[in-house]
Amino acid sequence: MPRHLRPGDLVRFVSPASPPDRETVDASAQLLRRWGFRVDFGAHAFCKMNYLAGTDEERLSDLNGAFRDPEVRAVFATRGGKGSYRIADRMDYGAARRDPKFVVGFSDIAILQMALWKHGIGGGIHGAIMEEDRAGTRPNGVTSLRQVLLGIDRMRIEARKDEDTIGLTTAGRVEGPLVGGNLDMVATAAGWALPRLDGCILLLEAVNMFLGQVDRQLTMLRKGRHLDGVAGIALGQFTDFKTSGTLTIVDLLREHLSRLDVPILGGLPLGHGTAPLCVPMGCPTRLDADGGQLEIWVSG
Length: 300
Prior knowledge:
By secondary structure, the protein is α/β, with parallel strands linked by helices. The chain has two domains: 10-150, Murein tetrapeptidase LD-carboxypeptidase, N-terminal domain (Rossmann fold); 155-296, Glucose Oxidase, domain 1. The chain has helices at 22-34, 56-68, 93-98, 110-118, 142-150, 183-189, 211-223, 249-257, and strands at 10-14, 38-41, 72-77, 102-105, 124-126, 155-158, 173-182, 201-207, 232-239, 264-265, 279-280, 284-288, 293-296. The strands form two sheets. It has a seven-stranded mixed sheet. α7 (211-223) links the parallel β8 and β9. α4 crosses α6 (183-189).
């Protein structure tokens, strides 16, 4: 696991996936500077090649360059989108293991965080600096990111009753490292970049997919035995889904996940929905389905 950040530390923005909006990234950089960090950018952070932020070699060069630079203490993805899965197997795991750093991002970036964890490297932060939270007006917006980066206290994430997945909450308490993220990336990683999930709490969230896609992915993960040994399921935001006849995304998730016979906590504000939080991956975590919360030991 990386050490927590201190004022004056350098953080770097890179673009492992799709091209970002420069104004959006600049605004996020300004927030980080107000927190006392130095900020710079990968050489190809604002490149564009169709739906990718430059060629595979350019994006990989920036990512590995950040891992190899001893001054860089956190790596921020400018955005998700598509393309991280094309380079996840070519990260410099040796450099990342010798000098672990926080890797901040979600959605497509989740596959990088999972591949690093598979190689024994922690520091993934599932989340991003959201536009509506840059001013720090939401107590649970960028505040959660700052808490993780600085290692402040213990984090408690309460389930929200207005999230669709709240109805999937069962009962029980389990402990283990939190791993996973975007369902599409979890499924994409299966067989090559997905770490073993024995004893882990699996985080799942998704956005704008057909129910049939989710059905195929969860079927493959179950029947391929990739979910064997998972300790519990933490369900984030499943947004922009339509029903198919009478079937809803909640119905479909219940059909697959109930077969695992482990505690499930739904309704977590993690993902692509309204006011999502940032959460550290791989830290000791307690899933309390009875109490409706995740408790994470951020400071180690």
